[in-house]
User: Fold this.
Amino acid sequence: VDPVTKISFPDTERGQVCLGAGARTKRVAILDVKVYALAFYVDGDKAKAAKALGLLKGAYDKTLRITLARDVDGKDFASALDEALAPRLREIATNMATKEDENGDFMATTAEAAEKAEEKANDELEALSDAFSGIKLKSGTNVIITWTPNASKKASIDIAGDVVEFESEELALALLDTYLGDAPVSPGARDAFNKGLSAL
Assistant:
């Protein structure tokens, strides 16, 4: 149960165990508005074995279940995702493009590959925005994000039963960083997930 919204989540999701729950709030004027609750699930055995890598770097299947705490326009939800993902994609692409070889030399082929990877990630991000456009996410609607790092489809988002899949590893990493990185959209939720990982 998320302590802020009181929204409850199942103990398991797609055979994965729940590490914890939290809430995404947004400051409007002087009020913190509850937007959604979120719970994070992992393959328990694999997460425990790779515990030292942390949730962000562990290369196993993961699932994030989001339940809306209020009505949200799909376009607004997509806009918020784009705002979170775009700078992360730029950073990932920049890090790829400026990678050096063992001699400390700049590699033109790496820069070219980074440019193509960023272009593909942005195309898939645009497809995600299109999927949210024109829909109304009612309170109680579930949005389920899955990560499958060892499959051809690196991530997917199930929007109330409508599934959008992604091949871009960069987009999948940016999406994961949005919830588990150094500047997550919900620090409290990220801390709850890490606490759950430690308890495995």
